[in-house]
Amino acid sequence: MSTSSALPKWTVAAPAAAIVVLAFTWGRTLPWPLVTLAAVCLGAAVLAAVHHAEVVAHRVGEPFGSLVLAVAVTVIEVALILTMMSGGGPKASALARDTVFAAVMISCNGIVGLSLLVAAIRRRVAVFNAEGTGTALATVATLATLSLVLPTFTTTKPGPEFSTTQLVFAAIASLALYGLFVAVQTVRHRDYFLPVAQDGSPLTEDHHAAPPSKRTTVISLVLLLVALVAVVGDAKAVSPAIEAGVAAAGLPASVVGIVIALLVLLPETLAASRAARRDRVQTSLNLALGSAMASIGLTIPSIALASIWLTGPLVLGLGATHMVLLALTVVVGTLTVVPGRATLLQAGVHLSLLGAFLVLAVSP
């Protein structure tokens, strides 16, 4: 990671170019050449976002660095969901559920599995702090169950929906739990979320490179937000082409939400894998589980508030297949976290669960 006072030129140019493309393509039907251009700018913005997130993280230290990226991505993701839901239509009712669940599965299985894979290949055993990771996983499991499982079994309102009272409770509980976790992660038990060495001892901050200056950090933070806006905006710009491709292939409509969730989570995926290569698996897990937690803890309250003016039903409850995958993810995640050490096998198990989710989404 570059921490010099001067940022690489491409990390400044990429978000700017992506925003310009977004401004010219927003709300328009794009021909394939412009779709390709938007996709290229999307990829460049993702790489720039990862770079700027690492600059900020190096300045503020862990776990604040991973929290910055997780919250920034999720805020933009929520804005995208609300924008797409405001258009209405039959597909909008389940959009929040599909996007949030996809984010949980990608984070808890894809990002976790990839991080463990990278670290295990490098060091044979990936080492992390079981106390902090276990706390994060427990919070994710609780949030997912309250928001995505219970609506399938409640009876006040027909269908997998919450009543108004239930939705308000789920929103308050989600926000409260997320806020409590952030307080524990950053203040009361910050040491639980710091990277550890192979012998389990805490790792100190990097000393091979001086932290970036305050000015560079502020510039990177601004460019990070610009890049994330561009990522989500360009993803929305190319989504009609994705929808057309999905429809032409005869795939379920929920596949569109998965594709967009994959695009939106690319910055965190790349940042997590790079942290794992530097033997900072705890940082990778902070990113993965923090993303899943923020996706639920910020989306559900936002959707509850937006339901005041949004029309149509709000489907939140998962189907039987997805509930099985969620339960298996929690069980496997628990068994991975408890020892505080993981091998290639645990990485393979998590990646297999992600593969099962993707296959069943394409062929339910």
Q: How would you concisely characterize the structure shown here?
A:
With 364 residues, the protein is an all-alpha fold. Helices cover 72% and strands 1% of the residues.
Low-pLDDT parts are none
Structural class label: mainly alpha
Counted up, domains total 1
Tell me, what's the shape?
globular
Question: Within the CATH hierarchy, at the fold level, what is the topology?
Answer: A middle domain of Talin 1
The portion of residues assigned to helices is over 70%
Outline the biggest β-sheet. 2 strands, antiparallel
Strand content: under 5%
Spell out the helices and strands N to C.
HHHHEHHHHHHHEH
InterPro entries: Alkaline_pH_Ca-Antiporter, NaCa_Exmemb
Subcellular location: Membrane
GO molecular function: potassium:proton antiporter activity; sodium:proton antiporter activity
Protein name: Ionic transporter y4hA
Structure description:
The chain is mostly helical and 364 residues long. The protein has helices spanning 9-25, 32-60, 64-85, 95-123, 130-149, 164-188, 214-248, 254-264, 266-277, 281-306, 320-337, 344-362; strands spanning 126-127, 341-342. The chain has one domain (9-362): Up-down Bundle (A middle domain of Talin 1). The chain is built from twelve helices and two strands. α4 packs across α8, α5 packs antiparallel against α6 (164-188) and α5 packs parallel to α10.
